[in-house]
Amino acid sequence: MRNGKGRVGSMSNENRHLKIQYIGQVGVILRKNDIAIAIDPYLTDSVDHLSGFPEAFWQRRYTPPVKPETLTNLDLVLCTHEHMDHMDPDTLRAIALASPKCQFGAPKSCLPMLEAIGISAERLHALGTQEVFQYGVDLIIHPIPAWHEERVRDGEGWDHYLGYILQWDGLCIYHAGDTLLTEELVEALSCFTIDVGFLPINGRDIFRNRLGVVGNMNALEAADLAAHLKFDIVVPVHFDMYANNSEGIAPFVDRLYQKHPGQKFHIFQPGETLVYVK
Predict the structure, then answer these.
(1) Where is the Metallo-beta-lactamase domain (predicted)?
(2) What is the rounded CA–CA span in Å between residue 30 and residue 245?
(3) Could you list the pLDDT tens digit for every one of the 278 residues in the chain?
(4) CA distance 172 to 186
(5) Could you name the CATH architecture of 2-276?
(6) What is the strand order of the sheet 35-39 is part of?
(7) How much is the pTM?
(8) Which of 233, 232, 33, 235 is nearest to 135 (CA)?
(9) What's the CA gap between 198 and 26, in Å, rounded?
(10) Rounded distance, CA 152 to CA 148, Å?
Protein backbone atom coordinates (compact mmCIF):
# COMPACT_ATOMS: atom_id res chain seq x y z
CA MET A 1 0.00 0.00 0.00
CA ARG A 2 1.52 3.28 -1.12
CA ASN A 3 1.00 6.47 0.82
CA GLY A 4 0.52 9.98 -0.47
CA LYS A 5 0.97 13.16 1.50
CA GLY A 6 -2.65 14.01 2.23
CA ARG A 7 -3.62 15.91 5.31
CA VAL A 8 -6.07 14.73 7.93
CA GLY A 9 -9.51 16.25 7.34
CA SER A 10 -12.10 17.58 9.74
CA MET A 11 -14.93 15.24 10.76
CA SER A 12 -17.75 17.80 10.93
CA ASN A 13 -21.11 16.93 9.38
CA GLU A 14 -20.54 19.48 6.62
CA ASN A 15 -17.19 17.97 5.71
CA ARG A 16 -18.75 14.54 5.40
CA HIS A 17 -20.48 15.82 2.29
CA LEU A 18 -18.90 15.34 -1.11
CA LYS A 19 -18.71 18.40 -3.35
CA ILE A 20 -18.55 17.51 -7.04
CA GLN A 21 -17.67 20.11 -9.63
CA TYR A 22 -17.91 19.12 -13.28
CA ILE A 23 -15.25 20.82 -15.41
CA GLY A 24 -15.97 19.29 -18.82
CA GLN A 25 -15.46 16.13 -20.92
CA VAL A 26 -14.87 13.65 -18.07
CA GLY A 27 -13.12 16.07 -15.71
CA VAL A 28 -14.32 16.52 -12.13
CA ILE A 29 -13.03 18.16 -8.97
CA LEU A 30 -14.01 16.35 -5.77
CA ARG A 31 -13.82 18.07 -2.39
CA LYS A 32 -14.26 16.32 0.94
CA ASN A 33 -12.71 16.65 4.40
CA ASP A 34 -10.58 19.62 3.28
CA ILE A 35 -9.00 17.58 0.48
CA ALA A 36 -9.47 18.54 -3.19
CA ILE A 37 -8.91 16.00 -5.96
CA ALA A 38 -9.14 16.57 -9.71
CA ILE A 39 -9.66 13.63 -12.05
CA ASP A 40 -8.79 14.02 -15.75
CA PRO A 41 -8.87 17.83 -15.80
CA TYR A 42 -8.91 19.21 -19.36
CA LEU A 43 -9.13 22.99 -19.30
CA THR A 44 -7.68 24.20 -22.62
CA ASP A 45 -8.47 23.73 -26.31
CA SER A 46 -5.45 21.50 -26.98
CA VAL A 47 -7.50 18.76 -28.63
CA ASP A 48 -8.89 21.25 -31.16
CA HIS A 49 -5.41 21.56 -32.65
CA LEU A 50 -4.72 17.86 -33.20
CA SER A 51 -3.52 17.11 -36.72
CA GLY A 52 -4.64 14.28 -38.98
CA PHE A 53 -8.37 14.90 -38.69
CA PRO A 54 -10.88 16.59 -41.02
CA GLU A 55 -11.02 20.35 -40.63
CA ALA A 56 -12.88 21.42 -37.46
CA PHE A 57 -13.45 17.78 -36.47
CA TRP A 58 -12.39 18.70 -32.95
CA GLN A 59 -14.05 21.90 -31.80
CA ARG A 60 -15.00 22.57 -28.20
CA ARG A 61 -18.68 23.38 -27.71
CA TYR A 62 -18.02 25.54 -24.64
CA THR A 63 -15.09 27.37 -23.11
CA PRO A 64 -13.33 25.85 -20.09
CA PRO A 65 -15.47 26.66 -17.04
CA VAL A 66 -12.35 26.99 -14.86
CA LYS A 67 -8.92 28.43 -15.62
CA PRO A 68 -6.28 25.91 -14.51
CA GLU A 69 -4.05 28.62 -13.07
CA THR A 70 -6.83 29.44 -10.56
CA LEU A 71 -6.74 25.95 -9.05
CA THR A 72 -4.45 26.87 -6.19
CA ASN A 73 -5.71 24.42 -3.56
CA LEU A 74 -5.62 21.01 -5.22
CA ASP A 75 -4.06 18.19 -3.22
CA LEU A 76 -4.13 15.39 -5.80
CA VAL A 77 -4.66 15.01 -9.54
CA LEU A 78 -5.53 11.60 -10.98
CA CYS A 79 -5.20 10.89 -14.71
CA THR A 80 -6.69 7.75 -16.20
CA HIS A 81 -4.56 7.60 -19.37
CA GLU A 82 -2.45 9.68 -21.72
CA HIS A 83 -5.03 10.95 -24.24
CA MET A 84 -5.01 14.73 -24.33
CA ASP A 85 -8.59 15.21 -23.12
CA HIS A 86 -7.61 13.27 -19.99
CA MET A 87 -3.96 14.20 -19.49
CA ASP A 88 -3.51 17.61 -21.10
CA PRO A 89 0.05 18.96 -20.71
CA ASP A 90 -1.02 22.62 -20.69
CA THR A 91 -3.66 22.04 -18.01
CA LEU A 92 -1.42 19.92 -15.80
CA ARG A 93 1.57 22.25 -16.09
CA ALA A 94 -0.60 25.16 -14.94
CA ILE A 95 -2.06 23.16 -12.05
CA ALA A 96 1.41 22.04 -10.92
CA LEU A 97 2.50 25.67 -10.73
CA ALA A 98 -0.71 26.92 -9.08
CA SER A 99 -0.79 24.12 -6.48
CA PRO A 100 2.88 23.46 -5.68
CA LYS A 101 2.10 20.80 -3.06
CA CYS A 102 -0.25 18.87 -5.34
CA GLN A 103 0.58 15.23 -6.05
CA PHE A 104 -0.14 13.48 -9.37
CA GLY A 105 -1.16 9.86 -9.89
CA ALA A 106 -1.41 8.11 -13.25
CA PRO A 107 -0.66 4.83 -15.02
CA LYS A 108 3.07 4.08 -14.98
CA SER A 109 3.32 4.66 -18.75
CA CYS A 110 2.22 8.28 -18.23
CA LEU A 111 4.91 9.29 -15.75
CA PRO A 112 7.67 10.10 -18.30
CA MET A 113 5.24 12.48 -20.06
CA LEU A 114 4.40 14.18 -16.77
CA GLU A 115 8.09 14.60 -15.93
CA ALA A 116 8.68 16.00 -19.42
CA ILE A 117 6.29 18.89 -18.76
CA GLY A 118 8.16 19.85 -15.61
CA ILE A 119 6.42 17.94 -12.79
CA SER A 120 9.14 16.61 -10.50
CA ALA A 121 9.44 12.89 -9.87
CA GLU A 122 8.78 13.22 -6.12
CA ARG A 123 5.29 14.53 -6.91
CA LEU A 124 4.42 11.57 -9.15
CA HIS A 125 2.85 8.21 -8.28
CA ALA A 126 2.67 5.24 -10.65
CA LEU A 127 -0.75 3.64 -10.19
CA GLY A 128 -1.62 0.09 -11.14
CA THR A 129 -4.06 -2.67 -10.32
CA GLN A 130 -1.42 -4.57 -8.34
CA GLU A 131 -1.71 -2.28 -5.33
CA VAL A 132 -4.02 0.27 -3.74
CA PHE A 133 -2.86 3.84 -3.18
CA GLN A 134 -3.63 5.38 0.21
CA TYR A 135 -3.81 9.15 0.43
CA GLY A 136 -3.88 10.48 3.96
CA VAL A 137 -5.85 8.56 6.57
CA ASP A 138 -9.33 8.32 5.08
CA LEU A 139 -8.89 7.85 1.31
CA ILE A 140 -7.97 4.61 -0.42
CA ILE A 141 -7.75 4.58 -4.23
CA HIS A 142 -8.21 1.30 -6.08
CA PRO A 143 -6.99 1.42 -9.70
CA ILE A 144 -9.44 -0.50 -11.90
CA PRO A 145 -8.54 -1.83 -15.37
CA ALA A 146 -10.10 -0.06 -18.35
CA TRP A 147 -10.73 -1.41 -21.86
CA HIS A 148 -10.19 1.50 -24.28
CA GLU A 149 -11.16 -0.37 -26.62
CA GLU A 150 -8.99 -3.16 -25.26
CA ARG A 151 -7.01 -3.69 -22.10
CA VAL A 152 -3.36 -2.79 -22.71
CA ARG A 153 -0.58 -3.81 -20.31
CA ASP A 154 3.19 -3.66 -20.47
CA GLY A 155 5.48 -6.63 -19.91
CA GLU A 156 5.37 -6.11 -16.14
CA GLY A 157 1.57 -6.05 -16.02
CA TRP A 158 1.08 -2.28 -15.64
CA ASP A 159 -2.15 -1.11 -17.27
CA HIS A 160 -2.05 1.78 -19.76
CA TYR A 161 -5.74 2.61 -19.16
CA LEU A 162 -7.29 2.85 -15.71
CA GLY A 163 -10.40 3.83 -13.86
CA TYR A 164 -10.41 4.60 -10.14
CA ILE A 165 -12.48 3.55 -7.16
CA LEU A 166 -12.15 6.04 -4.30
CA GLN A 167 -13.13 4.75 -0.87
CA TRP A 168 -13.29 8.02 0.98
CA ASP A 169 -14.46 8.28 4.58
CA GLY A 170 -17.57 6.15 4.12
CA LEU A 171 -18.24 6.99 0.46
CA CYS A 172 -17.40 4.92 -2.61
CA ILE A 173 -16.82 6.82 -5.86
CA TYR A 174 -16.04 5.31 -9.27
CA HIS A 175 -14.53 7.25 -12.15
CA ALA A 176 -14.35 4.98 -15.19
CA GLY A 177 -12.02 7.07 -17.35
CA ASP A 178 -12.42 5.66 -20.85
CA THR A 179 -13.58 2.07 -21.16
CA LEU A 180 -15.84 -0.39 -22.89
CA LEU A 181 -18.24 -2.42 -20.79
CA THR A 182 -16.82 -5.94 -20.36
CA GLU A 183 -17.58 -8.92 -18.16
CA GLU A 184 -14.20 -8.38 -16.49
CA LEU A 185 -15.09 -4.80 -15.62
CA VAL A 186 -18.43 -5.84 -14.12
CA GLU A 187 -16.62 -8.45 -12.04
CA ALA A 188 -14.02 -5.95 -10.81
CA LEU A 189 -16.69 -3.43 -9.79
CA SER A 190 -18.95 -6.01 -8.15
CA CYS A 191 -16.65 -5.98 -5.11
CA PHE A 192 -17.78 -2.43 -4.28
CA THR A 193 -21.02 -0.71 -3.34
CA ILE A 194 -20.77 2.44 -5.46
CA ASP A 195 -22.38 5.65 -4.27
CA VAL A 196 -21.38 7.92 -7.16
CA GLY A 197 -20.27 6.65 -10.55
CA PHE A 198 -18.95 8.66 -13.51
CA LEU A 199 -19.39 6.71 -16.76
CA PRO A 200 -18.51 7.63 -20.36
CA ILE A 201 -21.41 7.34 -22.80
CA ASN A 202 -19.91 8.41 -26.14
CA GLY A 203 -19.82 4.88 -27.59
CA ARG A 204 -17.85 3.90 -30.66
CA ASP A 205 -18.35 3.23 -34.37
CA ILE A 206 -16.38 2.20 -37.42
CA PHE A 207 -16.18 5.71 -38.83
CA ARG A 208 -14.57 7.12 -35.71
CA ASN A 209 -12.29 4.09 -35.57
CA ARG A 210 -11.14 4.82 -39.12
CA LEU A 211 -9.90 8.20 -37.89
CA GLY A 212 -8.15 6.65 -34.92
CA VAL A 213 -10.77 7.72 -32.38
CA VAL A 214 -10.92 4.99 -29.74
CA GLY A 215 -14.36 4.43 -28.21
CA ASN A 216 -16.12 3.59 -24.98
CA MET A 217 -19.32 2.08 -23.66
CA ASN A 218 -22.46 3.64 -25.07
CA ALA A 219 -25.36 5.30 -23.30
CA LEU A 220 -27.48 2.16 -22.98
CA GLU A 221 -24.61 0.12 -21.57
CA ALA A 222 -23.75 2.82 -19.05
CA ALA A 223 -27.35 3.05 -17.85
CA ASP A 224 -27.59 -0.73 -17.56
CA LEU A 225 -24.27 -0.96 -15.68
CA ALA A 226 -25.31 1.64 -13.11
CA ALA A 227 -28.61 -0.13 -12.50
CA HIS A 228 -27.05 -3.60 -12.41
CA LEU A 229 -24.50 -2.57 -9.77
CA LYS A 230 -27.03 -0.39 -7.93
CA PHE A 231 -25.09 2.88 -8.05
CA ASP A 232 -26.77 5.36 -5.74
CA ILE A 233 -26.30 8.02 -8.42
CA VAL A 234 -24.81 7.80 -11.90
CA VAL A 235 -23.25 10.73 -13.75
CA PRO A 236 -22.86 10.46 -17.55
CA VAL A 237 -19.71 12.06 -18.98
CA HIS A 238 -17.81 12.22 -22.28
CA PHE A 239 -20.79 13.35 -24.34
CA ASP A 240 -21.10 17.15 -24.30
CA MET A 241 -17.81 18.70 -25.42
CA TYR A 242 -17.05 17.32 -28.90
CA ALA A 243 -20.04 16.73 -31.16
CA ASN A 244 -18.10 14.40 -33.45
CA ASN A 245 -17.31 12.05 -30.58
CA SER A 246 -20.72 11.79 -28.97
CA GLU A 247 -24.05 10.00 -29.22
CA GLY A 248 -25.85 12.66 -27.19
CA ILE A 249 -27.59 12.43 -23.85
CA ALA A 250 -31.13 11.42 -24.89
CA PRO A 251 -30.50 7.64 -25.20
CA PHE A 252 -29.05 7.54 -21.69
CA VAL A 253 -31.99 9.33 -20.10
CA ASP A 254 -34.54 7.33 -22.07
CA ARG A 255 -32.92 4.03 -21.07
CA LEU A 256 -33.08 4.92 -17.40
CA TYR A 257 -36.71 6.04 -17.54
CA GLN A 258 -37.87 3.10 -19.65
CA LYS A 259 -35.86 0.24 -18.17
CA HIS A 260 -34.55 1.38 -14.79
CA PRO A 261 -37.15 3.63 -13.12
CA GLY A 262 -35.88 4.92 -9.83
CA GLN A 263 -32.19 4.87 -10.77
CA LYS A 264 -30.88 8.29 -9.74
CA PHE A 265 -28.73 10.28 -12.14
CA HIS A 266 -27.43 13.80 -12.57
CA ILE A 267 -26.53 15.60 -15.79
CA PHE A 268 -24.06 18.37 -15.06
CA GLN A 269 -23.66 21.67 -16.81
CA PRO A 270 -20.02 22.75 -17.25
CA GLY A 271 -18.76 24.34 -14.05
CA GLU A 272 -21.75 23.21 -11.98
CA THR A 273 -21.19 22.02 -8.41
CA LEU A 274 -23.36 19.39 -6.70
CA VAL A 275 -23.24 18.53 -3.01
CA TYR A 276 -23.79 14.80 -2.61
CA VAL A 277 -24.95 13.44 0.73
CA LYS A 278 -25.17 9.67 1.13
Answers:
(1) 56-239
(2) 25
(3) 666 644 333 445 555 699 999 999 999 999 999 999 999 999 999 999 999 999 999 999 999 999 999 999 999 999 999 999 999 999 999 999 999 999 999 999 999 999 999 999 999 999 999 999 999 989 999 999 999 999 999 999 999 999 999 999 999 999 999 999 999 999 999 999 999 999 999 999 999 999 999 999 999 999 999 999 999 999 999 999 999 999 999 999 999 999 999 999 999 999 999 999 98
(4) 16
(5) 4-Layer Sandwich (3.60)
(6) 124-127, 103-107, 76-78, 35-39, 27-32, 18-24, 273-276
(7) 0.94
(8) 33
(9) 8
(10) 8
